[in-house]
Backbone:
C-alpha cells in the first residue's frame, strides 16, 4: 500500500468514526483537540492501524499520545520507514 493510500484510509476511517464531523479533514487536522475523535476511539484506531500494517501489532507500552494528534503524526509513528 502506498503512502497516499494509507493516509486516505486513515482519513476515511476517522471521518466515518467522527462524532462531530469536521467540514474538512486534512492530514494536519488536530483530531482530539477538535473533538473529531475521543480517547475511546483511539483503541479502535490502533486496531485499524494494525490491519493497515498487515497485522503487525502496535506495541501498546511504547505508544506516545502525540502519535494520534493528526494523520501526519500517525503516518510518521506507525508507517514511515525507519
Residues:
Amino acid at each position: 500500500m502506498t503512502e497516499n493510500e494509507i493516509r486516505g484510509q486513515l482519513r476515511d476511517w476517522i471521518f466515518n468514526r467522527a462524532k462531530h464531523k469536521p467540514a474538512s479533514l486534512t492530514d494536519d487536522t488536530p483530531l482530539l483537540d477538535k473533538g473529531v475523535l475521543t480517547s475511546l476511539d483511539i483503541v479502535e484506531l490502533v486496531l485499524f492501524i494494525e490491519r493497515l500494517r498487515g497485522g503487525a501489532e502496535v506495541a501498546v507500552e511504547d505508544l506516545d499520545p502525540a502519535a494520534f494528534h493528526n494523520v501526519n503524526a500517525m503516518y510518521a509513528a506507525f508507517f514511515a520507514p525507519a
